[in-house]
């Protein structure tokens, strides 16, 4: 059966995967974890190692590794294999986290640190995974969730108790640190230091002679030297049969009376009466409104009347209104031939003055004028219905073994082949459909074609023919891009040479401002940014001494920068306070983190660590690649 179009992924969530409580929240991964056989790793292997008397189980390692693998896949927007994750060190990070936790658990047990029953019960009650429909802890839900995760109450509660004790131990080690004032003060002075500088941006207009046009030989030589830039990435050669509403629509016959009905149904869109932009100032009585009008007549402004009533122009704005919208005031307002104020006039809120600000002429689109667009819409809608009616027949043909070419011929579809590479700028237009891209991503060699509904009502069936290795695009097909890149390279070189020459002039005594339009920035700190300039400008500025001149080059950017002065960090103000607080917080966090690392390393060394690489490899083997 043809699959419905898929929606975009839901918001991504990050998980640490290194605590028992987080482990519980991974209950939704039951099916996936079962597929990795976390309870059996061959030969009865149940642990990958230990720290002191605390074991690190294969189940914990597999579960945490799967959790982090899922998080990384969500972050990258594609399924990451274990081999790819290992190349980024993910397995080592997971293992280090488990070793650290085991070291804490082992030490907590050694010194007799434990969480009481009341604390464990409170933690259990607060976990949403164990709550029933009433929103409170439900023992049946609790037992069911644990059973699905291949554990029981005793094992889980023991792990939770150890997790709480480990957290207490960690807090006792990392809490209470105060960053030295000398350190935070030095960092504040460095981060808050400001600099004033002058920047001269260079462009082709600064050159005495423009960059000459390249010869054909120069272009071909550039192409050959940079052929990797013009090589299409590995692609999947796809055969597809498609039936799209836009393709089928022109063949659909629509009766004239249907076009007329569609026009009449949307008549308000095609026949728009004359309107006015109007503001309405309402008063309590007609006498108050009349006095206000008299004040206007002798020169007082309408804005003053509005402000007097503690209103704004937005409060009284009626927008664009028709004569009918204004009711009894409509004739007087529409009698105005230019901006003006009329009243007092009745309104549904009481006596009011009406200011008309502009006239919006009536607009009418006749049936003949609207016919092409209406016809196209009706034809497209009819095409969608026709395609929907073919889904069952398409499914039957594919189920019966029909090829995509036979399917296309039988059902009037378009058959084609395309080399699809994710992100390539020359993919077939069919690749603009998310449904097509998703279907292709799931295809394997030898898979039978399967029909997929597209989000505009179209239908496509795809089949993987082969994988196409990276292939250079022909020179003629990318000549325009080669020319553009050659010119950018030649211009960058010419501007760099010009910048060096101008730098020499400044160092000889010329003013930077005398060489072109220079921009002066009076005061900017390291956290600042400069519009239209790369970060390397500020990086250069904060390495210079007053009076120094430097050439700054980046992709598509060449400039001369001169440091004018250095200013100390501002000691007062909201920004200074926020910066100082941030530095203190980060410093204390860094100190605590370093101390905790040293502490856990010492615990591990004292207790002794043993890792079974064969068991670790067995876990990895269950993931596949």
Architecture blueprint of SSEs:
Elements: H1 20-25, H2 30-35, E1 47-51, E2 54-57, H3 58-76, H4 82-87, H5 90-111, H6 117-126, H7 139-148, H8 153-174, H9 181-192, E3 194-201, H10 216-225, E4 231-232, E5 235-243, H11 245-248, H12 256-265, H13 267-270, E6 271-272, E7 275-282, H14 286-297, H15 302-308, H16 313-316, E8 317-322, H17 330-335, E9 340-345, E10 352-360, E11 363-364, H18 367-399, H19 404-411, E12 414-420, H20 434-442, E13 450-453, E14 459-468, E15 471-472, H21 479-507, E16 518-525, H22 536-541, E17 549-554, E18 557-567, H23 574-607, E19 609-611, H24 613-623
Antiparallel strand pairs: 1-2, 1-19, 3-16, 3-18, 4-15, 5-12, 5-14, 6-11, 7-8, 7-10, 9-10, 13-14, 17-18
Helix pairs in contact: 3-5, 5-8, 5-23, 9-23, 10-21, 12-18
